[in-house]
Amino acid sequence: xxxxxxxxxxxxxxxxxxxxxxxxxxxxxxxxxxxxxxxxxxxxxxxxxxxxxxxxxxxxxxxxxxxxxxxxxxxxxxxxxxxxxxxxxxxxxxxxxxxxxxxxxxxxxxxxxxxxxxxxxxxxxxxxxxxxxxxxxxxxxxxxxxx
Length: 147
Hints:
With 147 residues, the chain is of the alpha+beta class. The protein has a single domain, classed as endopeptidase fold (from Nostoc punctiforme) (Alpha-Beta Complex). 34% of the residues lie in helices and 21% in strands. Helix 1 packs antiparallel against helix 2. It starts with 6 loop residues before the first helix and ends in an 11-residue tail after the last strand.
């Protein structure tokens, strides 16, 4: 899985569509936000979520999968994304991130100096210093010379 050549525009359009979106389990929760951001950048869904329409359902299936952090790392490993060393300092725009905010973990995507994830009433940005893990999706190689 690689980012499309125009991934930055695709990510910007995706993020614009989420500016006023409310948090909704199974649609605009942190995991689905991250999965859909990746799909916007790559054209492919990195993992098929079983979905959960309540916090209780999400907690039950996350528990079966080893928790959010384990699932986040498993998705990254299965898609061969590169781990970002010192993620709290080195996460770059378009990296998928795991955020720890007020003691809670959530998934998101790195922006410019911030990490973005769905908030209760709208898109939320948190300082990149709250990123505890990040993975970089490779970008498609551009042909330097036409054939």
